Amino acid sequence: MSTPFNTRMLRAADAPAWAVCLVTGIALTTTAIVAEHKHAAADEARATTTEAPRGPATVAPQHPALPVSRSVSGGSDRRTLARSGALAATHQPKRAARWRPRVRRPHLPAPRRPRFPMARSNAAQIVAKAMHSVSNVPGMCLVWSRHQAGIPSKYSDAATAWRHATGRRPRDPNPPRGAAVYWTGGSHGFGHIAISVGHGKVRSSDAGGQGDVATVPIHHLSREWDLHYAGWANSINGYRIRGITALTHPA
Predict the structure, then answer these.
(1) Residue 203 in contact with residue 213, Cβ under 8 Å?
(2) Running along the chain, 251 residues long, what does each successive block of 10 average in pLDDT?
(3) pTM score, two decimals?
């Protein structure tokens, strides 16, 4: 007995091999696609049933904005303005230097300083002080003489002071008042020094005896003390005595 199914099967059996393969491939592909869609639907349904119900969306708490200090904001504003001003200053074009005529100032010579320092007392004051002096340290003629003029110490004896004196008048027998009168020689070669009071006389230490001041003629000391009269000068220890003019002559 023949049926439509049997008829189709007979026809398929009579079909060539390539047609059978093609039909088989189409059938397998269709089956795979349908199975894939079924599995996807099942997975989606399962995920829907197991997912927990979602509540309302959680909103993060918002904190109130902190107040900004005026001093901080003002400082930042000032720094910003200062920075912008500095940048603007650097970008400004440089101005050309203004030419100014050079004024020549008159050259004033520096005031001349005295070549030698001046004694504290002048010639008249030295004579007045020497006349009031009545005693001295024995053998210290240079110390006594420079004290009358207010001159500091420098040389050790009168002979050395004469060699370095300025304004010297060697062997002049008439020294002016207030001048320093010098001798060389003596028992130890230290020489002697005294203060002229004019008219060929001097006020000298030890002239009235050891430690006594007296006024004597110049030649008296040369004869009594075996000294060599050297001359007079307007200076003691490099300090010039005011009120005495003397030309410098070689010894």
Answers:
(1) yes
(2) 52 66 78 73 65 50 51 55 57 66 73 78 96 96 97 96 95 96 94 96 96 96 94 96 67 38
(3) 0.55
